[in-house]
Amino acid sequence: SNTKHTRLWTREQQPPPMAKLGEGDDRWIVKEREDGRNVNNWHWSETSYTEWAREKLGARFEGVAIGDGTRSAGKLLSLETMKGDVTVQSRKQKRFPLYELELTIRWEGQLFDASGGTAVEAKGRIKVPDLSEETYDDLEMTVLCDEETDAKRPLKELVRKEGGKAVRAACLAFVRELKETVMKGHEPPPQKAPPRERFNAGYVAASAETAKTGAVKVVYSYNPPPHVLYETLLDTQRIRGITASDASMSTEVGGKLMMFSGAVEGENAELKPFDGERAVIKWKWRFSTWQPSHWSTVLITMVKQDDGSTKLTLEQTGVPEDERERTERGWKGMLFEPMNAMLGGRVIGA
Fold first, then answer.
1. Angstrom distance (rounded) from CA 99 to CA 135
2. CA-to-CA distance for 121 and 231, rounded, in angstroms?
3. Cα–Cα distance for residue pair 322/147, rounded to 1 Å
4. pLDDT, tens only, 39-89
5. Which of 262, 232, 215 is nearest to 340 (CA)?
6. Over the stretch 164-181, which tens digit does the pLDDT of each residue have?
7. pLDDT, mean of residues 214-242
């Protein structure tokens, strides 16, 4: 039918009123707010997590040991470059991350001779061309050596096999942390302003930033008896082999120590060789990037267990609060885990 119908309303049945200014469902009204906030993330927005991602990835690639530390050893040094963006999209209270990154990671390695000295050294890069939601669980990467020679090829192969595993594990952990952060609704922290006090360009913490300090505790179980651990921690050649970097240790109270090619410096404050039950090493210890007057105290206690193995406990006090996580990660990844690979053992607490 072509009959045209017209809707008629009685006096008792009025048409629904049109929304007036200021009325209606607040979720659909874009109010002008002085603070500019997108309330409850209802309207579309995009938040950059790029610098947050750079910091998190940088921490995960810093000083990660690879290899068993016997005939060869290596480590991931740092995140050299990160290209791309990480953003979080928000719409109607739903949040999801978008990321597409290209990474370059620095590495170094050493081959040891029969006496434990360094025979060959090599440095290079690991390139990850695409870290994204489509590739994070099956990453492609390329290992490059700064100087491609036959002598350095075993180190390149070590990094390709073991370093590749470490890079994949770090990237998986980063993606998991990113998604958990987004799921919890956490916003990336504002960028920290550079310290106002700087003694010189080498120091990263000013006095105001080191006022708060914390403690680090790590507990391991090692197969050898305490005297082997005690001697290992004070032996220059063994520490060089374990850390795959230059070191200088001392067996005298008051003797100076240097580890990780100068990144750590300190002094033997107290030494108690194994007495049948335990051995103790106490260090005055600092990162070279801490301000010159700031030192921490490291106490390492090695106790003999009933089966002849050793329970090693490290307790460090006076660590700047913003350096505590980095310091604990360094003890585990750059010293005790490589010692574990060399001597046999396991982490039993922290």
1. 11
2. 25
3. 37
4. 444 445 678 889 999 999 999 999 888 877 678 888 899 999 999 988 887
5. 232
6. 899 999 999 999 999 888
7. 92
With the C-alpha atoms ordered 267, 271, 273, 279, is the resulting torsion angle positive or negative?
negative
Instruction: Locate 321 and state its tokens.
Output: 């609060």
Are the CB atoms for 288 and 258 separated by under 8 Å? no
The answer to whether residue 96 scores a pLDDT higher than 60 is yes
Q: 51: buried, middle or exposed (CB in 10 Å: 19+, 13-18, 0-12)?
A: middle
Listed in sequence order, the DSSP H helices in the chain are 50-60, 153-158, 164-183, 226-233, 236-243, 324-330, 337-343
The three-class DSSP label of residue 26 is: helix
Q: Average model confidence (pLDDT) for the chain?
A: 79
Tokens representing 318 are 């006076």
DSSP 248: B
pLDDT at 28 over 70: no
Res 112: pLDDT: 84
Collapsing DSSP to helix, strand or coil, 191 comes out as coil
C-beta of residue 140 within 8 angstroms of C-beta of residue 130: yes
Q: What percent of the chain has pLDDT over 90?
A: 40
CA-based R_g, the chain, Å: 28
Contact indicator for 76, 166 with CB cutoff of 8 Å: yes
Query: Which element (helix H / strand E) includes 302?
Result: strand 296-304
Six-digit token string for 94: 């739903």
Helix axes 50-60, 164-183, angle to 10 degrees: 140
Left if phi > 0, otherwise alpha if psi is -120 to 50, otherwise beta: which for 34?
Answer: alpha
Tokens linked to 88: 């979080």
Q: Can you give the pLDDT at residue 345?
A: 56
Q: Which amino acid is at 188?
A: P
CB 144 within 8 A of CB 163: no
- Burial tier of 49 (Cβ tally within 10 Å: 0-12, 13-18, 19+): buried
